[in-house]
Amino acid sequence: MPGIxxxxxxxxxxxxxxxxxxxxxxxxxxxxxxxxxxxxxxxxVPLSERQALQNILTQWMEIWMLRVRWQDxxxxxxxxxxxxxxxARKISGLAIIASASVNRPRDGTDYETMxxxxxxxxxxxxxxxxxxxxxxxxxxxxxxxxQFFLREINEDARKVLFAVVEDGTSTDSWIAAQCxxxxxxNSYLVIRRILTQLFxxxxxxxxxQACYLLRELSKRTNVIHSMLGDELNSxxxxxxxxxxxxxxxxxxxxxxxxxxxxxxxMWRDWNIPVRWTAAEALQQMGYRNLVHDQMRRHIEGGDxxxxxxxxxxIGGLQHMTDQLLPGFIKCFSDDYMNVRRRACQTAGLLQTKxxxxxxxxxxxxxxxPAWKNQVxxxxxxxxxxxxxxxxxxxxxxxxxxxxxxxxxEACRCIATLRQCDSDVKNVxxxxxxxxxxxxxxxxxxxxxxxxxxxxDGIREITSLIQQQISKLCQKEELxxxxxxxxxxxxxxxxxxxxxxxxxxxxxxxHDSKVSGGPYGHGRKESSSPLCKNTTASNRTKSEKVQAWTxxxxxxxxxxxxNYRLSQDTSCILISDVVERVIQRGR
Length: 586
Fold this sequence. Notes:
single chain; 586 residues; 0% strand; oxidoreductase activity; ARM-like
């Protein structure tokens, strides 16, 4: 006797290959840049129904841990299994029949004619009907599932499925609810079980399956809209997003109350992704003009909060029209800082290359008093990717900005735009030497590496300067210079004291300043306090150091006592000295 699948095993491979070319699978929900899943579009209803059947069969096999090969089964073997006293063999036989019914090859592409072709011989149907009256509940459930896949479901099978939905395990009730939904049952119990699975299991496959079933049931009833409308009041923002996405895929009439709830969420919900999803649901339901008109009204005539909400929706929906553009342009020059910042974010999301928008972003970089707005404008230019002479000039100017955040974002923007001409390289290399902020310096290094510019030359110059400065910062070099300065200050102090006691000394002091001052640039007889041979007294060098550190009049006594002339703490910040040296050289 030929097997149930032996006569068509070869045709199965060719048929499946042909069907995969003619009827592509439904698109899978993709994840956008902001981490949110997009809505699922069921454009090919016949193939989606077959895919739904295959999903139910796969779930049943995995949950019950059934491993069957319907291609090798024979009718005699199936009869022996269905009449066996062992429940496991009966369930295995029913699973083989169900698997063969779903996975058998299809002759032709018309899904409507599938029901006219018998999946199993008619002589097997009585055995399946008898299994519905078996003493074992698992055998009865398997027989009900088998009749569903054979499209020969009767009233007894429906009763079994309803009992499983109401009192069965969570997995079995989910499978039974799917079977009843595909049979067109739109009762409250079935819809409630599908919605429960939708909110409890957030996997991609379950979401697609539940949305498809609800879409099919929404053709016959409006109960789904009402039940989902109640879920819009949930305190969990992820539930509200899921409800909005599901509502956008439903068919049938929509009540005004549901539309008002979605409009309220679009403008008033505290979570920004919920607002975007509510607006998208309204557009999918055919209210695109309503959403557009409200966004235009908010962006043109609303207060600063309304403008920010409208800009957020425009960026989230990535929807810009000629009617919205004038109001959008005005937001770049708004009096409120947050509105200008949100306009920059929206421009980056839209990635529009409109010349007016680019000029507005450049004006913000050049003239905005808030440095954070300059950062967001630079970031928007990086996302847009349009490079002009003005954009390049402003980025080079931003590299030299006094604000570290502006310099940091300018480096990132240059790396994103891949600007690597000679002017940009020279500016980056110069800034690499002068930069004192650690984060900006690391970002400069990454930018040079991204632009294939070797920073070895910069490191050599910096190393040489650091070596020279470290030599000058040695204790042996600093102490004599500090002592000389101390002697100079001490001598000046003595002169001032003598001038107070002897009025004639003022004229001598005046003549000394006219002739060259206390530094000996005039007459030869004027003593120079900077000379190493000239001292204020005959004290030894050690005594001078001790007196110098103890003297309260000495301006350097406090710092010397704190630092104790140590090797580690006597060095000056290298970056500041390098900057001063280069500025003097210029």
